[in-house]
Amino acid sequence: MKNFIYLFLAVTIFACSSDESDSNDNSSTNGLLVDTVQLSCLEMSNQELTQVEFTSSYNYDGNKLVSIDFSKINGETATTNYTYNDNNQFSAVYFWGGDYEEYEYDELGRLIVRTYTDVDESIIPVIRRSVFLYNQDGTVRTRYNNGNTEPTEISTFDQNGNLISTIFIDGSNNNETRSYTYDNANSPFKNMTGHFFEGSYSYSFPALFSGGNNALTVENENNRYFYTYNDNNYPISVNSPNGIYSYSNIQATITYK
C-alpha cells in the first residue's frame, strides 16, 4: 500500500507561487475538504495481480492537512503525518514505513528542493534529491539525482496551475513527452492549505488532481479517468479501467466535510 503514497514521486512537484500564497493565508475552513477516500485497484507486481483496498481518513487543523489514517481491508492501520513551515507550505511528509520527504522554497514561495529519504528499503538510507529551476517562459526544469544518473524534466502548466505536459530528458536522445488534460471541475484538494499539483499522490490518491482541476488523461490517451460530481462540482467517485503504470481498475469514492 505504501506505493500509493509516493506512486509518482518521480513526477515534478511545482508549488504555484502566486495562487498558493493566497491560499496559504487562508487558515479558515471555507470550502469543502476531503473527509474520506475508499479506494480499490489491481496492482501488478512480479507478474502477479493483487487486489488493493483501503480507506483513507483525512485530519485537519483548519485547512491544514495534519495526518491521514489508513485502514486496510485486513484491519491493519497506519498513519502519514504532515508538517508546515511558517508560510503555511508543506515542509515535510512522514510516511508510516519510516520514509520521509522534505521541501525547501525560495523567497517567492516556490519549491526549489525536494529530498526523499528511503529508510525502509535498505540498511543504509537512500536519499533522492530533486532541484527545481524556474524559466522565464513559465516552464519548470527539474533535475533528479537518482544515484548515478541525473535525468531532467521540463514541465509546462496552464493558467490554473495544472500540469499539461512534461518532456523527460535522460541524455540518450530518446526524449519522452507526456501530456495531460483536465476537466473544469474542482479538485478535491483545492481548499487545502499548501496544495500543490503533485500533492495528490502524497495525499494517498492515484490520480492527478492538479492545480485546481482533475485530470482526464494522464501521460497518454489510454490512461483515462472518469468522474461523477456533487452539486458543488467536486468529484465524488473516480474510475480508471486502464489505470497507470502497475495499477489498473482504479475505483474510489470521496466524501467531504
Plain-language structure description:
- The chain has helices at residues 2-5, 17-24, 199-202, and strands at residues 34-45, 48-61, 64-72, 77-84, 90-94, 100-105, 111-118, 126-134, 140-145, 152-157, 163-169, 176-182, 215-224, 226-229, 235-240, 247-256.
- By secondary structure, the chain is mainly beta.
- The chain has one domain.
- Strands 13-12-11-10-9-8-7-6-5-4-3-2-1-16-15-14 form a 16-stranded antiparallel beta sheet, with no helix packed on it.
- A hairpin with a 5-residue loop joins strand 4 (77-84) and strand 5.
- The longest helix is centred in the first third of the chain and has 8 residues, at 17-24.
- The protein is globular, with a radius of gyration of 17 Å.
Number of strands: 16
Distance between the termini: 25 Å
Beta-strand percent range: over 45%
The low-confidence runs, each spanning 5 or more residues with pLDDT under 50, are 1-29
Task: Going across the biggest sheet, name each strand in turn.
Answer: 13-12-11-10-9-8-7-6-5-4-3-2-1-16-15-14
Radius of gyration: 17 Å
Order of helices and strands: HHEEEEEEEEEEEEHEEEE
Give the overall shape. globular
| Class computed from helices, strands and strand pairing | mainly beta
Helix percent reads under 10%
Overall mean confidence score, pLDDT? 81
Question: What is the count of DSSP helices, taking H or I runs of 4+ residues?
Answer: 3
